[in-house]
Amino acid sequence: MSTRTLTMRRRPVQLVPPHVEPLVSSTRLAMLILVCAESMLFAGIIGAYIVFREKASVWPPADLPSLPLFVTAVNSVILFASTWPLTRALRAVHRPLTPGLSRLLWMTAGLGATFLAIQGSEWVSLVRHGLTLGSGAYGGAFYVLIGCHAVHVATAMLWLGTVAWLASRGTYSPARFEAVEMCAIYWYFVCALWAVLFPLVYLY
Amino acid sequence: MRHLAIPTALVLLEARDLLAQGCAMCGQMGQNDPTGRAISVSVLYMMSMPYLLAGLVAGVFFLARRRVRVRTPALARK
């Protein structure tokens, strides 16, 4: 039995590369994936709505009420107006002292709540006039599509409320503002979605 | 592979009417059938969504890259 020395080729030790910031942060990437998934969900529902709408010779059906256009148009303006305080909040979070941040976020959530309240009253009125979830393809498609959006607005409002509460406790600073940014992206997405849904459901 | 090209082209040309139907469901429905037209419009819309979303993702990455280059001029020269 012979003993031999194990020899290995020497390789130069690689120095640890310097820390490189990712092009898009993990939180933004996660938000992007969420927005894409949500978009595909709505694309499916809108696709179904288009099938019902294109197939029908009369829309809305003669025995069912038509949708309130003026109230919804005003409501849309309220929702789109909510992006203004949010944009200001996004600017405010980059400043060293962010006294108005919480107020601006609460303002956005308040406008969202107003949108939901008006939509809720509109739904109550429609149900009283006989348009329910069981009113054929028209009622089903309307309530599923608009209801799904309303659920998203309610979720975004809860998120905004939480972020506003944390902002009032001084959680956010110019170095730590990702939560505000992610919440803003979601709110912009919800508003952009309404910009598609309103013309499709109420005007088309 | 070249010797397969002509027979393949002939088969495809011969079967052009079958290919134009797209799928069995679309083939059964006529051009003026409202259900068929509705499904076609919906399919076109649904088909465009992944491309729109891919464009959105690409746009986000493009803007992020441009922002990095603006912040670090040394990278802009590369």
Number of strands of chain A: 0
Strand content of chain B: under 5%
Mean pLDDT value of chain B: 78
DSSP helix fraction of chain B: over 70%
Question: Gap between N and C termini of chain A, in Å?
Answer: 90 Å
Protein architecture, described:
The complex is a heterodimer of chains A (204) and B (78). Chain A is flat, with a radius of gyration of 25 Å. Chain A is mainly α and 204 residues long. Chain A is built from 6 helices and no strands. Chain A has helices at 26-55, 69-81, 83-92, 101-128, 136-168, 178-203. With 78 residues, chain B is mostly helical. Helices cover 83% and strands 0% of the residues of chain B. Chain B contains 5 helices and no strands. The longest helix of chain B is centred in the last third of the chain and has 38 residues, at 34-71. Chains A and B meet through helix 1 of A and helix 4 of B.
Salient structural properties:
heterodimer; A: 204 residues; mainly alpha; 6 helices; 69% helix; B: mainly alpha
Provide a short characterization of the protein structure.
The complex is a heterodimer of chains A (about 200) and B (about 80). Chain A contains 6 helices and no strands. With about 200 residues, chain A is mainly alpha-helical.
Helix and strand topology:
The complex is a heterodimer of chains A (204) and B (78).
Chain A: H1 26-55, H2 69-81, H3 83-92, H4 101-128, H5 136-168, H6 178-203
Helix pairs in contact in A: 1-5, 1-6, 2-4, 2-6, 3-4, 3-6, 4-5, 5-6
Chain B: H1 2-14, H2 16-20, H3 24-28, H4 34-71, H5 73-76
